[in-house]
Each structure stands twice: as C-alpha cells, then as structure tokens.
Amino acid sequence: MDSDWYRGQVIFLTGATGNLGGCLLYKLSLKLPTSKIFVLVRGSIRQAVEKWEHFMPEQVDDILDTGKVNFMVGDMTQPDLALSATDLELLKQEVTVVINSAGDISLHQSLSETILPNCTAHLTLTTILAGFTRLQCFLQISTTYVNSFLPDGSIEERIYPLHPNPIVELDTIIATGKSAATDQFAAPYALAKHLAERLILDGGHAFPILIVRPSFIAPAIQDPYPLYGRDGATPAHSFIHLILGNRNHGLLQLEETLPTHPICDEIPVDLVAIVCLAHLAQGTTGIVHAAADLYATWTCGEMGNRFHRHIPREVKEDAQKIEFQQSHSLAPYFFQMIQRFWRDWKIDCARSSHLKQLKGPLGLDLGDHDPEAFLKRRVERQSKLAHSWLKRGALPFENGSLYSRHLNE
C-alpha cells in the first residue's frame, strides 16, 4: 500500500497524549509524509510535551523537530471543544483527516460519569465536522468490547444493534444516569462506546466514517520503541497489578476459575496504529477490527504457560517468601468482571488480512519478528517491576489512578 496518500494531508488528532494517540502521532509525524498535524491538548502545551517526554523520551524531540505539530488547547467534553473561534475556523478550513482517539478508559466509572467523554463528546465532535470544508474521512477509535453483551462465537466487523432506538437510550442515560443494559456490558465504558458507534454511523453525516475496534492493547513491537505502552492503558498489566497479592481475588484463583481454550486477544499498540492508518489510506469505511488474528492467536492456557515459563526463577522464589496481602480496593471488582465477561470469541479481522503480506509503514508484515521472544522480554520486564513493588510493600498506582481518570487527551 502506497503511503504517498498521506502526502499533503492535514490531520486533526485528538487523544495525542494517550497510549494509542502517542503512537499515531509518532507515525504520522515521522513515518508518513503528512503536511501538518493539529493536536488537541488539555491544560497547556507544556503539560502535553511533558507527557511525551515521560513516555517517549527519545522520540519527542524528533517529533517536534518535524515542524508538523501544531497545538490546539481545548477540551473534548466542552462545546466547540473549548477552542477559540480563530483556532476552530483554522481547523475547518485546513483539516483533511480527523482521527479521534480521545476517551476516558476508566473501567470502574459509573455510566453517568463515562457517558460524556466516551459518547456525547464524540457526537459533539462529529457535529462540528460538518463545517470542515476539506474533510475526506473521520476515524473513530472504539473497542471490541462494545460487543461484550454477545455470547461466545464469531464477532464480525459490523454493528450488532442492542437498542432499537439508541437516541432514546442516550437521552435516558443523560436524564437518569442509568440504563437497563448496563449489566450486559463488561463496564459502563463499553456501553458508552457502543452507543457512540451507533449514533455516529446513524448520524447522516456527509463525510466518510471509519471505526476501528482494537481488542486489548499490548505494548509496541517497534514504534515508537519496543515495549512502549503505559501500564495504565495496557489491560493485561493493569489487571495483574490490581489483583496482585490479593488472598481471595489473586492471580492463582483467577487461573483456576477461567477456561483455558479461548483466545487471549491482545494486539500490540503499533499494529493497531498501522490498521488505522492503512484503512484511512485505502478509503475504508464502516467497522474494522484490530485484534490477535493480525498478530499471534495464543489461547489463554498457552499464554498462561508462557507467563509461568518466562517469569525469572529468582522472582518466583522471592515472591513465595514475601508475605504481601495489601490489595488494591478494586481487586474484587475487576476479578469478578473478568470472570463474568470472559468470552470464547473469534474476533474477525478479515478486512485487514491483506495487510499481513505488506511491508512498510502501512503493512503488517513483521519480517523476522519473533512473538515468543518478544513476549519473554515483556514478561521479564513486568515480573521485575512487580517484584520491586512487592519488596517495597506497595502497589503501583496506589492512589486510585489505575484505570481511573486515565483520559487520553
């Protein structure tokens, strides 16, 4: 696929300081011939740069030195994105592609808290886009867990309608903060994203719309650098951290209760970015999945065996000696959520299968990359981090920050 499609494109990117958003920014600025990238940031430009300096310390200068990045200070959850009239008019006149990767990925927020950043804010954005005179495509980042109400089986790249009238459902949530469907979703976040998909696609917009649904996002293979990825935005790491050391809701108890044959559906964050950017270039519209079928389809049992095999011996031995029963208060919640919504899904990725034969910035041909060796590096790194936390008698993200107000803007 020819990356030349991006030559001259002017991108408006939201969520650029988030996990996937940072990876997209890296690729758009350094790997593709884009003309200009407007990034929406909250608070201040300095705060945004400091986040990049923390998570992409060796890449941030190269990104900014391209001269492509143009900052827009605003807020996705406010009218007109809290942009000045001048900035908003500039976007309307120049932008050709909008990528919306903003959202609040907290999985334990209430429905009333999560509906604004993960649904209504997206709808506000699409309304504003009606005035973008050069817009060629709008990309919305979603999640495969918008379908968490579905049973085991194949999940196709399409909408599975749950509500006959999603507008009425959203109005009910805004008025009452509740929905009869809440218990059918792994988290209120997933319900909010489900409604956002329905309402965006049903909105009668004049511009083409692409929705990419990643499964669980794993650390990067290569871009911006190997193992890039925030633990707070890497579900597998977050779940382990939350239930680490818990007597009743720990890793061993979870292993004993979950079936081992379902696919452990993860995909590295830089592969998700490639799926997004490749489908934009080829003019795809509708729903596209980015899931394990595009990388490595290990079952949960196989993944568990690998985790046990790759955890360093000294870490295992020391962990057995340490009496550590301090537990994050959210451990029971996440333990039960995983048990209840563990699915034997086959997430269809047929619309991206051709990318596995393509090299370059828009291809998923990984060359001589070894998923086994990469997982070993990842497990060893996480084991050592967890080991250090255990020895200090403290968990990461102790003040409730893990999966709490982790806003990707």
Short description:
This protein has 409 residues and is α/β, with parallel strands linked by helices. The protein is 40% helix and 12% strand.
Task: Characterize the structure shown.
The chain is an alpha/beta fold and 409 residues long. It has a domain at 3-227 and 266-293 and 344-366: NAD(P)-binding Rossmann-like Domain (Rossmann fold, 3-Layer(aba) Sandwich). Helix content is 40%, strand content 12%. The chain is built from 14 helices and 11 strands. The protein has helices at 19-31, 45-55, 60-65, 85-94, 111-128, 166-176, 188-201, 235-243, 251-257, 269-281, 300-310, 313-321, 331-341, 371-392; strands spanning 10-14, 36-41, 69-73, 97-100, 137-141, 153-155, 209-214, 216-218, 266-268, 286-290, 345-347. The strands form 3 sheets. A 7-stranded parallel beta sheet has the order 3-2-1-4-5-7-10, with helices on both faces. The chain has a two-stranded parallel sheet with strand order 6-11. β4 (97-100), α5 (111-128) and β5 form a beta-alpha-beta unit. α1 (19-31) packs across α10 and α5 packs parallel to α7 (188-201). The longest helix is centred in the C-terminal third of the chain and has 22 residues, at 371-392. The two termini are 30 Å apart.
